[in-house]
């Protein structure tokens, strides 16, 4: 299938492009390179530098490349910034996505795969988290993703759009060969920050809160390998042949790890000592978030290859060793 990967130069998008190739599809990338990296996409893959919210950019790509399905990974994802600059998040994550969907429908493309997030649930009442939990985001980032989800439902009903929205837990790790990986500027995610603290690129890692009601007092999260995430996006293709079909899936391993466990695992994988500073809680961090992904496993045959967090960290470490400063661009 000819697949337009919007945000294909970003962290999850670039891994998905690799998996599409491996599965025999033909990916085409659209990315404005605000957060994406040109080097994350192999030179032989058709690449367009432009904005997903601009029909003058998107419509010719859909036509010229005979696109049959669009995957959308391009979003701003700094939760704290979404609170202080919500305009940016509504504009980029919601309004631009709406424009993309309109351009698709106007050009006869009606299959859509969307990057959503467990942040759409807010603070869950029950764990592990199933898809039917109430969705009550606690920040504009989660809200904009939920707004898109709701838009997709209405468009499926009214216009025959078929879609799958994946609610990711904590995407982590890197390509097995270490050639592409996580490179956010600024970086806020735990695993790359702990690796930086291990190698001395950062002075230390601050643990945000040690007094949570969890076994070791630090927050529990569900770290899921980026290639496992990517494979689910492709496994859903067959279900999108039916016009108006819509699916929501949680993607996580269901095995939570605490911040301290991540630090210990990084020390074990790297053989390096991680300097740790115990700090105050970060505003808006729920104590525990982890997925029940049995729906994706049952309906898509989704298999989690990386069930152990140390194996996920080993791929992040391989990427880091090959590219200590991330991509050059
Ligand atoms: N965290 C931390 N120190 C850091 C960054 C993150 O203790 O420098 C904690 C954070 O409070 C959360 C977990 O690590 O409990 C994962 O945070 P991350 O920002 O990677 O992902 P999130 O779960 O917030 O999406």
Q: N- to C-terminal separation?
A: 30 Å
As a percent range, the share of helical residues equals: 25-40%
CATH superfamily of the largest domain: NAD(P)-binding Rossmann-like Domain
Oligomer: single chain
| Secondary-structure element order, N to C | EHEEHEHHEHEEHEEEHEEHEHH
CATH topology descriptor of the largest domain: Rossmann fold
Q: Can you list the ligands bound to this structure? A: uridine-5'-diphosphate
| Sheet of most strands | 7 strands, parallel
**Low-confidence runs (pLDDT<50, min 5 residues)?**
none
Number of E-type strands: 13
Shape: globular
Please tell me the total number of domains. 2
Q: Structural class given helices, strands, pairing? A: alpha/beta
Provide the CATH architecture of the largest domain: 3-Layer(aba) Sandwich
State which percent range the strand residues make up.
Answer: 15-25%
Strand arrangement, largest sheet?
Answer: 3-2-1-4-5-6-11
Number of helices: 10
Radius of gyration computed on alpha carbons: 19 Å
**Integer average pLDDT:** 97
Give the C-level CATH assignment of the largest domain: Alpha Beta
């Amino acid at each position: 299938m000819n697949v337009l990967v919007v945000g294909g130069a970003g962290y999850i998008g670039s891994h998905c492009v690799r998996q599409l190739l491996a599965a025999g599809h033909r990916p085409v990338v659209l990315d404005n390179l605000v957060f994406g990296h040109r080097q994350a996409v192999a030179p032989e893959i058709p690449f367009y530098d432009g904005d997903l919210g601009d029909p003058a950019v998107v419509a010719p790509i859909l036509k010229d490349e005979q696109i049959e399905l669009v995957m959308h990974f391009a979003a701003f994802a700094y939760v704290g910034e979404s609170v202080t600059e919500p305009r940016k998040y509504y504009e980029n994550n919601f309004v631009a996505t709406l424009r993309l969907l309109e351009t698709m429908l106007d050009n006869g493309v009606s299959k859509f795969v969307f990057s959503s997030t467990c942040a759409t649930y807010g603070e869950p009442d029950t764990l592990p988290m199933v898809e039917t939990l109430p969705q009550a985001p606690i920040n504009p980032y989660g809200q904009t993703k939920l707004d898109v989800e709701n838009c997709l439902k209405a468009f499926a009903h009214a216009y025959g759009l078929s879609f799958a929205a994946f609610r990711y837990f904590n995407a982590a790790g890197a390509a097995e060969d270490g050639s592409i990986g996580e490179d956010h500027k600024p970086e806020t995610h735990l695993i790359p920050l702990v690796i930086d603290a291990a190698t001395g690129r950062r002075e230390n890692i601050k643990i945000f809160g040690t007094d949570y009601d969890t076994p070791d007092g630090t927050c529990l999260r569900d770290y899921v390998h980026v290639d496992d995430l990517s494979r689910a996006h492709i496994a859903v293709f067959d279900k999108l042949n039916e016009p108006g079909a819509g699916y929501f899936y949680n993607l996580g391993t269901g095995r939570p790890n605490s911040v301290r466990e991540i630090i210990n695992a990084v020390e074990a994988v790297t053989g390096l000592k991680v300097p740790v500073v115990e700090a105050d809680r970060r505003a808006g961090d729920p104590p525990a978030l982890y997925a029940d992904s049995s729906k994706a496993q049952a309906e898509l045959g989704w298999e989690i290859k990386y069930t152990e967090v140390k194996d996920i960290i080993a791929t992040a470490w391989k990427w880091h060793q090959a590219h200590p400063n991330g991509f050059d661009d």
